[in-house]
Design brief:
There is one protein chain. The protein is of the alpha+beta class. 16% of the residues lie in helices and 13% in strands. It has one domain (33-113). It has helices at residues 3-9, 15-25, and strands at 60-63, 69-72, 77-80, 85-87. It has a four-stranded antiparallel sheet, with no helix packed on it. Strand 2 (69-72) and strand 3 (77-80) form a beta hairpin. The longest helix is centred in the N-terminal third of the chain and has 11 residues, at 15-25. The protein is elongated and about 65 Å long.
Length: 113
């Protein structure tokens, strides 16, 4: 194979073009957390039965196309808007005596959300 065909595959670039390509490849510094804050300085919110979440363990969590969180418990399907829980029109599948307790239930969103 001649050097001409190799040059056709890898064209010569101006050194400034190589420098620009390398600059684009460098990672941009974007820390996820403020490094000057302690973890204890961040806000942590929890929701429980007093906020409308049933006492049942949550078996599945997914997000709808509208941004709601859909939670499935043993007895209910709920939507969470960031403030309150409301009953979802989706019904969780019935539990069966012959299915294991560790069974994970999922409610995937359809194309309509």
């Amino acid at each position: 194979m001649s050097s001409r065909s190799e040059n056709a595959i890898l064209p010569r670039l101006h050194p400034a073009a190589w420098a620009f390509a390398l600059l684009l490849a460098l990672p941009v510094s974007a820390p996820a957390l403020d490094p000057d804050r302690a973890v204890t300085q961040y806000l942590l919110e929890t929701w429980n039965a007093a906020d409308g979440l049933p006492g049942d363990p949550v078996l599945s969590i997914s997000q709808t196309s509208q941004g709601y969180l859909r939670l499935v418990t043993e007895d209910a399907a709920l939507l969470f808007d960031g403030i309150r829980f409301t009953a979802s029109p989706d019904r969780p599948p019935p539990r069966s005596a012959h299915l294991p307790d560790e069974l994970q239930v999922a409610l995937p969103a359809d194309l309509a959300g």
